[in-house]
């Protein structure tokens, strides 16, 4: 094979401090009790920085700061709020290489994804919602829509900065203030975002970032002075948060897990379908809630399609996330690697046939080879549970009705894919799929103007587009 | 290897229309993604030398003269006269009228002589004239013939006619290799590119080639990607390897390397060889030489240091 | 307070009137409670629904859902308009049950208002999204599925929770506050081309049945509009979290039936589906 030689993106664009504090009321400060945790580069296990662990008193201070800032921020004319968001969008564009490298360092995702997908979408999201800030009466939520108040936002580690953008941009555009908790394995880009806010001269307290683990998040969402909770993460934690919020009157939106079916019919554009399957499950190491983790292929083309898929997987380049040619980076954490490993072993034990291309994995860091399981049935755990890794379960079907039935046969309902060149079939199947996002002849496409969110246990509420405003308007 | 048409001529239409469709957005996104591959250092040096060895150095002008063709042949044999380590190009590509001159100029060099034929570039001449054109080129020493298909017949759905013409030209080629120019810019859709590729391969093409270089849209990455998929699938089904030649519009090293990446990750490294992949180009060569010099000397070069031919 | 109509009838005529038996409304039929229980409301023995009745109602609602959602919006609108016609035609009966004339008018008008939304809500709540790429991208609302409803009192209260749920294609299991009014409405529904199972009505004590529905894994949403006790509402919301049901909380101070309902009663029971497709020759 034609080797491309290492093409590492320069790390020098990112200047990391050895430790980071909490961002409260416009300033960085240590946790009250001085507690910290370490964030590591999952590709090397190198410690990148020490980060403050926010305890109850810190969260209290952050919520108080957000409450204090709320009055003036919500009273600001929409056009003025818009300009802050436009500033933020511009600063993100200017600093996008730095932020992309940082994201890849802390998360393990390939630089080509952080550079070409995450960061452009982050900036676009702020641009999009900036424009809404002074147009809210036209959004279809009544003639005089009002903000809700203080939003507690808890985001996952798979797209750290993008998930921040999905939460912060609409909240601020609508006049809310926020306390955001990034995931404990990927806190750095949120802290750099705090610096972006300072550069934009965003009023202190409008955005507060509290770092920490599950305890910090639980305390934050339960905080009595929070008016709105937005969470993206696992269905298990989402359930807990829904229980916590019950009876408090806090508004809640949840974007949770998925087990998307990617349905390939025998009249599909096969080469593009193979790309879509690969993109669907191996994009971002499969750490994607809407990943196409169940391939439903029509039985009469299964053999041919799988041969193409395997040939394609042979070309995937797994390794250094900062290498511009890397397709699959590092698994985000040891814990996630353990879960992927465990479920994969269960898949094999349950009788599914496991296959991975030959690929050399680095010795240090957290790695998992792209893997497919064939001979999977609906009864297998790997066909039902979210693995959140580069593992694809392949099932077959005979008729469109059977495909739809299998696709919907899950408590999740976040996304789905359809591959066919027949328009009427696509539209009929899309109608019947119980999923919030349906990609037909494409997969894993995102846009700030396009609402995203799930049916059933994949959560409720939408992020993105006009629909995304609703979660932040009273 | 003898080629027998695996399907009857009457089935051509249903076969070609039964090929999987090509989604435009998907194939263009894939080509663009491969275009972001970064090829550095030693790999880049190897890639540049391979690209030079894949060039069909071309002149197809009404103003071509024996002098111009001889100069081009000299350039093809020794692209960088100052550096004996620089490999020769794959072939010189000229009109049939210039084939004799080129044949003499290339004698003993190992550089192939390609001639466009069949009333290039439009192909709008009676079949007999096109066959005579082909035979003349071969007789003048061409060992590779670049023919054009009748796009009109293809677009009109007369696949049988296109098929039979390719068969006839292939016969007229004798032992010369046949490159079939699909003129993808006139076929307009990727579905047509895939169908035309299969049609040409089924009819006996040794190479499928994108373009004449004489229409608005010439070689592009996604078109070449579709053709690479076609030769890959054809070999899998019929066991015969077919070459691919993008032509027109490939002007610099960066572009050429993107094509090599495309081959590498689509058809595979069996095609990373001048026997199976060519660039139909003229100005590309000097840029390859400039980049080659940059890699060997460590500083950027300039056009005055390379011959204009 | 609803009044029983028959006492009056008996007094004036020697003829003994034929009384109506108030049963449940499940799957288009009027069964007794499987538990055999009744309870006395204004002199009538009305069915006291059990958890198993609730379970059966969910089965009926689920069975009816895809067909109802799959009907054309125009058709659903016609069916709901027919319901309004039938309520209007039964004014006397509702009046006899104590529904004030003004509330009756409002209830009919509200059915008509919601009936008209059937083929408009998708245009208001959905539409094309201008994404930055060569893609067709459209968002459309879809019914969330089976909705369990704790209805507020009165005919207008009932209409105000049933109509917004079913107009978009949801099916419902309704825990009614006023049994006679609710079952009379059920009789309207049963004679208005509303497919069986689209609206299922249980009478009885919602504090007993609602927790089963809140925790039922085949229920997609829970409308708590009629729940009066904050602690029970919180408990039900917590139970609903188990399968992440959509929850409509009881409005502060009870539902304001005279206010313009707005879109919320419909949109709260809708999912947004966004479909992408590439554009290219």
Automatic annotation (TrEMBL), chain A:
Pfam short name (any one):
Aldedh
Q: Which residues form the active site?
A: 255
Does the keyword field hold Oxidoreductase? Answer: yes
Question: Of which family is this protein a member?
Answer: Belongs to the aldehyde dehydrogenase family.
User: Entry's CDD domains?
Assistant: ALDH_F16 (cd07111)
Q: Which residues form the Aldehyde dehydrogenase domain?
A: 33-473
Q: Which PANTHER family match?
A: ALDEHYDE DEHYDROGENASE-RELATED
Keywords assigned by UniProt?
Oxidoreductase
Superkingdom of the source species: Bacteria
Name of the protein described by the UniProt record = Aldehyde dehydrogenase
Q: Which residues form a coiled coil?
A: none
UniProtKB/TrEMBL annotation, chain B:
Look up keyword Lyase and say if it applies: yes
Q: What is its EC number?
A: 4.1.2.4
Enzyme type, top EC level: lyase
Gene3D superfamilies, sorted: Aldolase class I
Domain of life, source organism: Bacteria
Q: Which InterPro entries match?
A: Aldolase_TIM (IPR013785), DeoC (IPR011343), DeoC/FbaB/LacD_aldolase (IPR002915)
Is the keyword Oxidoreductase in the record? no
Q: Which SUPFAM superfamilies match?
A: Aldolase (SSF51569)
**Catalysed reaction equations from the record:** 2-deoxy-D-ribose 5-phosphate = D-glyceraldehyde 3-phosphate + acetaldehyde
This protein's pathway reads: Carbohydrate degradation; 2-deoxy-D-ribose 1-phosphate degradation; D-glyceraldehyde 3-phosphate and acetaldehyde from 2-deoxy-alpha-D-ribose 1-phosphate: step 2/2
Keywords attached to this entry: Lyase, Schiff base
Q: Which Pfam families match?
A: DeoC
Question: Its family?
Answer: Belongs to the DeoC/FbaB aldolase family. DeoC type 2 subfamily.
Name-wise, this protein is Deoxyribose-phosphate aldolase
Species classification: Bacteria, Bacillati, Actinomycetota, Actinomycetes, Micromonosporales
Automatic annotation (TrEMBL), chain C:
Question: What keywords appear on the UniProt entry?
Answer: Oxidoreductase
Domain Aldehyde dehydrogenase residue range list: 45-248
Q: Which domain of life is it from?
A: Bacteria
UniProt entry tagged with the keyword Oxidoreductase = yes
**Pfam family name, one:** Aldedh
What PANTHER family does the entry give?
ALDEHYDE DEHYDROGENASE-RELATED (PTHR11699)
User: What is the name of the protein in this document?
Assistant: Aldehyde dehydrogenase
Please give the organism.
Answer: Actinoplanes palleronii
């Amino acid at each position: 094979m034609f080797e491309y030689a290492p093409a590492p993106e320069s790390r020098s664009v990112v200047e990391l401090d050895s430790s980071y504090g909490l961002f409260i009321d416009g300033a960085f400060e240590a946790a009250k009790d001085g507690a910290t945790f370490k964030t590591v580069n999952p590709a090397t296990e190198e410690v990148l920085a020490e980060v403050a662990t926010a305890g109850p008193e810190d969260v209290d201070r952050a919520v108080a700061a957000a409450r204090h800032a709320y009055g003036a921020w919500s009273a600001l004319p929409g056009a003025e709020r818009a300009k802050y968001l436009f500033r933020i969008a511009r600063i993100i564009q200017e600093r996008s290489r730095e932020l992309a490298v940082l994201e890849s360092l802390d998360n393990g995702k390939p630089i080509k994804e952080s550079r070409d997908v995450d960061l452009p979408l982050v900036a676009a999201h702020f641009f999009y919602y900036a424009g809404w800030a002074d147009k809210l009466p036209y959004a279809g939520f009544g003639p005089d829509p009002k903000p809700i108040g203080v939003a507690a936002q808890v985001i996952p580690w798979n797209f750290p900065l993008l998930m921040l953008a999905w939460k912060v941009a609409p909240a601020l555009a609508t006049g809310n203030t926020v306390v955001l908790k990034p995931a404990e394995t990927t806190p750095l880009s949120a802290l750099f975002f705090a610096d972006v806010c300072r550069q934009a001269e965003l009023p202190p307290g409008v955005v507060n970032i509290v770092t920490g683990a599950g305890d910090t998040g639980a305390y934050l969402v339960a905080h009595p002075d929070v008016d709105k909770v937005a969470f993206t993460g696992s269905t298990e934690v989402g359930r807990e948060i829904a229980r916590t919020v019950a009876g408090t009157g806090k508004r809640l939106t949840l974007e949770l897990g998925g087990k998307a079916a990617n349905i390939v019919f025998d009249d599909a554009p096969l080469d593009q379908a193979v790309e879509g399957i690969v993109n669907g499950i191996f994009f971002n190491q499969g750490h994607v809630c809407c990943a196409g983790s169940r391939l439903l292929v029509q039985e009469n083309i299964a053999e041919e399609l799988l041969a193409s898929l395997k040939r394609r997987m042979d070309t995937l380049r797994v390794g250094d996330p900062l290498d511009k040619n890397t397709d699959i980076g590092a698994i985000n954490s040891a814990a996630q690697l353990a879960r992927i490993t465990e479920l994969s072993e269960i898949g094999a034990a349950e009788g599914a046939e496991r296959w991975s291309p030959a690929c050399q994995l680095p010795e240090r860091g957290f790695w998992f080879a792209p893997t497919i399981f064939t001979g999977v049935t609906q009864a297998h755990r790997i066909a039902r549970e979210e693995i959140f890794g580069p593992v694809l379960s392949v099932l077959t079907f005979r008729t469109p009705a059977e495909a739809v039935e299998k696709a919907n046969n899950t408590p999740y309902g976040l996304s789905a894919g359809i591959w066919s060149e027949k328009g009427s079939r696509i539209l009929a199947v899309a109608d019947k799929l119980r999923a919030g996002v349906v990609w037909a002849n494409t997969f894993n496409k995102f846009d700030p103007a396009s609402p995203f969110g799930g049916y059933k246990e994949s959560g409720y509420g939408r992020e993105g587009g006009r629909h995304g405003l609703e979660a932040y308007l009273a | 290897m003898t080629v027998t048409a695996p399907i009857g001529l009457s089935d051509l239409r249903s076969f070609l229309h039964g090929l999987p469709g090509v989604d435009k957005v998907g194939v263009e996104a894939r080509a663009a993604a491969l275009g972001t591959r970064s090829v550095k250092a030693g790999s880049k040096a190897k890639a540049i030398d391979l690209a030079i060895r894949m060039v069909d150095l071309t002149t197809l002008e009404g103003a071509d003269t024996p002098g111009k063709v001889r100069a081009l042949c000299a350039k093809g044999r020794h692209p960088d006269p100052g550096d004996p380590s620089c490999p020769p190009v794959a072939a010189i590509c000229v009109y049939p009228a210039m084939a004799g001159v080129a044949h003499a100029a290339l004698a003993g060099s190992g550089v192939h002589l390609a001639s466009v034929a069949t009333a290039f570039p439009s192909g709008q001449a009676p079949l007999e004239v096109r066959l005579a054109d082909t035979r003349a080129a071969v007789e003048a020493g061409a060992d590779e013939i670049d023919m054009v298909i009748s796009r009109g017949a293809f677009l009109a759905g007369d696949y049988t006619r296109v098929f039979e013409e390719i068969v006839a030209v292939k016969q007229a080629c004798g032992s010369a290799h046949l490159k079939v120019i699909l003129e993808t810019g006139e076929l307009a859709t990727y579905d047509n590119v895939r169908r035309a590729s299969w049609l040409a391969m089924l009819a006996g093409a040794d190479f499928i080639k994108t373009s004449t270089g004489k229409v608005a849209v010439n070689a592009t990455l996604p078109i070449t990607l579709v053709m690479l998929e076609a030769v890959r699938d054809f070999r899998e089904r019929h066991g015969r390897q077919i070459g691919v030649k993008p032509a027109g519009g490939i002007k610099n090293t960066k572009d050429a390397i993107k094509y090599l990446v495309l081959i590498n990750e689509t058809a595979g490294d069996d095609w990373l060889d001048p026997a199976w992949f060519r660039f139909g180009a003229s100005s590309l060569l000097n840029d390859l030489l400039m980049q080659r010099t940059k890699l060997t000397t460590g500083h950027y070069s300039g056009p005055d240091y390379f011959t204009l031919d | 307070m609803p009044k029983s109509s028959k006492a009056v009838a008996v007094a004036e005529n020697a003829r003994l009137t034929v009384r109506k038996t108030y049963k449940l409304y499940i799957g288009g039929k009027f069964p007794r409670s499987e538990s055999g229980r009744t309870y006395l409301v204004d002199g009538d023995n009305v069915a006291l629904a059990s958890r198993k009745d609730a379970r059966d109602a969910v089965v009926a609602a689920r069975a009816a859902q895809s067909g109802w959602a799959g009907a054309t919006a125009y058709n659903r609108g016609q069916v709901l308009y027919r319901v309004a016609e039938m309520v209007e035609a039964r004014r006397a009966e509702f009046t006899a049950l104590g529904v004030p004339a003004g509330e009756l008018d409002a209830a009919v008008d509200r059915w008509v208002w919601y009936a008209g939304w059937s083929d408009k809500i998708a245009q208001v709540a959905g539409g094309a999204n201008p994404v930055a790429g060569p893609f067709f991208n459209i968002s459309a609302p879809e019914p969330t599925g089976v909705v369990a409803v704790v209805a507020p009192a009165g005919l207008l209260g009932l209409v105000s929770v049933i109509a917004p749920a079913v107009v978009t294609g949801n099916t419902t299991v309704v825990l009614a506050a006023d049994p006679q009014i609710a079952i009379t409405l059920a009789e309207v529904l049963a004679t208005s081309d509303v497919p069986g199972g689209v609206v299922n009505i249980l009478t009885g004590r919602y504090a007993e049945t609602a927790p089963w529905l809140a925790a039922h894994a085949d229920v997609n949403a829970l409308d708590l509009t009629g729940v009066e006790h904050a602690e029970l509402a919180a408990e039900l919301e917590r139970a609903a979290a188990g399968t992440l049901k959509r929850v409509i909380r009881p409005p502060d101070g009870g539902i304001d039936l005279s206010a313009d309902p707005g879109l919320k009663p419909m949109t709260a029971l809708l999912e947004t589906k966004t479909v992408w497709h590439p554009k290219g020759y």
